[in-house]
Design brief:
two-stranded antiparallel sheet; elongated; 10 strands; 150 residues; eight-stranded antiparallel β-sheet; Elongation Factor Tu (Ef-tu), domain 3
């Protein structure tokens, strides 16, 4: 029996050693990969892609399309109901029935006179700053389109 115990002890010792070596090798490989990724190559500069210029450039200061001043903006479209062709506008300035407005967006650009204005399904003649009104529009409008006095 003592020989059996010695053999088992030897086998167990070799297994432990083998396992430790495998673990150490794996750790070394992970560290080596991390170091290679973090170090930039010597003598090479990083190349950044150039920005493309476009004809419809948005001003960097205000985020407004060309031809629209911040002082002219009356409001912004927040929703569109296609079945009744009505848009919801959050006003930044007062608006009266009969005013001519221009709605300008990424794919939208048209002028229109206001014939119908509502707040909570009740018709109104004028709206003040901060109101969220519904207006009938002749063409589709999209969220974040700007409403400007024409």
């Amino acid at each position: 029996m003592p020989l059996n115990k010695k053999k088992k002890a030897k086998k167990a010792a070799t297994k432990k050693v083998v396992k430790k070596k495998v673990v150490k090798i794996r750790l070394v490989k992970k560290v080596a990969k991390k170091v290679v990724r973090k170090k930039p190559q010597a003598g090479k500069k990083s190349i950044k892609p150039k920005k493309k210029s476009s004809a419809k450039r948005v001003s960097a200061k205000k985020g407004l399309p060309k031809g629209i001043a911040a002082s002219d903006i009356i409001g912004e479209v927040t929703h569109y109901f296609p079945h009744v062709q009505a848009g919801v506008v959050k006003l930044k300035a007062p608006l009266v029935l009969g005013d001519t407005i221009r709605i300008k967006g990424h794919t939208t650009d048209f002028n229109q006179t206001i014939n119908s204005m509502q707040i909570d399904r009740s018709p109104i003649q004028q709206a003040k700053k901060g109101d969220e009104i519904g207006i009938l529009v002749k063409s589709r409008v999209r969220r974040r389109d700007l409403v400007v006095k024409a």
